[in-house]
Amino acid sequence: MEKEYKYITTPRLTTAYIEAGQADKPKLLLLHGNFSSAVFYEGLMARLEEKYYMIAPDFRCFGKSSALPVDATEGLRVFTEDLDEFVRAIGWDKFSLCGWSMGGGIAMQYVIDHCEKVEKLILQAPLSPYGFGGTYDIDGKKAEPLGIGSGAGTANQELLKAIKEKDRAIPGQVIDAVYVAAGNKLPADRRERYIDSLLMCSVGEDMCQGNFVPDSNWPFVRSGDKGVGNTMSPQYCDLSSLPEIPVKPPVMWIRGDKDIMVSDNSSCDLAVLGRMGIIPGYPGENVFPSQPMVSQTRHVLELYKAQGGKYEEVVFAESGHGCMLDHEEEFAQTVDEFISGMN
User: How far from 283 is each of 152, 233, 278, CA to CA, in Å?
Assistant: First the structure.
């Protein structure tokens, strides 16, 4: 099942990628999430390679692609511009697009900027269109001061330390407890490969996860201007213009009902952790509300529908943040039916 990497160098970077299927089949571009890489799609590729031509690139700072600085003030466009240059280099002009988690946000940004190239859009447990952390209510109102409780300062510091030290234990715990839902067990060799992938993330102030700014307001941290984590801060990330794009590909939104990462009650939301007493001094929902990530995505997709687009929401029971990992067969069948079905 393991795929051999290929490489393409463009003026922006060298992109590592894996591929499967035949070039005469319908094209599907697969975008990984934060703290992962293209190898997380190997299982899906093995199941669909008879029907599709699939390519999964590693983003800058992830996997085997270039470890280059990330200017967070560009938001997710730092990745979509890399991606569009890559797509042109491989000669693709029309394709379906699937993005997971942060990759779902990158997919939305790509469609906003290049909607004419995307035939169908699959959002798997995507980043909220209003960013990760620091917003509230379904319409993404921004907490004040801007960037509070979001960005690199909210990252899992133990995981970052483990990556630096090449410690396999904590990445394994993240995979077991977040990427798959409790009760689901990955094959041992696949799990080890995913840990290998996590440990390849390039860590630093302008890479994974970036810098942050201390603040006098709870939770005492604001997003900085460098690194991957800050590209998802509402200070720089706003994908709410998705409903306004002139060419609207059909959208399928897939999520797991046991996802604790992207949720209306996310265990990665500092307000939720404050409410649980894990972060002391929480001032309450009236001062720093939690972020309803799933409801925010549904709100934007309903606006997409109201303005002429189509979307459907699919929820996998007993599934975590990585539906294609703990429900691989069901995920592959759902993707196939969506892409091959009528618009």
Answer: 22, 21, 13
Give me the phi and psi of 95, to 5 degrees please: -165, 160
Domains of the chain: 6-340 (3.40.50.1820)
| Tokens found for residue 28 | 């599907």
**What are the tokens at 160?**
């970052």
209 Cβ neighbours under 8 A, 6+ residues apart:
152, 155, 160, 203, 227, 228, 229, 230
DSSP 3-state assignment of 188?
Answer: helix
CA distance 342 to 299: 25
Give the chain's mean pLDDT: 97
Whether 339 contacts 28, CB under 8 Å:
yes
φ and ψ of 212, to 5 deg:
-145, 165
- Facing residues of 136 across strands? 141
Parallel/antiparallel/unpaired status of strands 53-57 and 14-20: antiparallel
- pLDDT for 217 equals 96
Q: How far apart are CA 271 and CA 149, in angstroms?
A: 8
User: What is residue 148's DSSP assignment?
Assistant: B
Residue 233: CB atoms within 10 A of its CB come to 31
Classify residue 192 by burial, with Cβ atoms within 10 Å: 0-12, 13-18, 19+: middle
Residue 306 contacts residue 243 (beta carbons within 8 Å): yes
Distance between CA 324 and CA 329 in Å, rounded?
Answer: 8
**Is the overall model pTM greater than 0.90, yes or no?**
yes
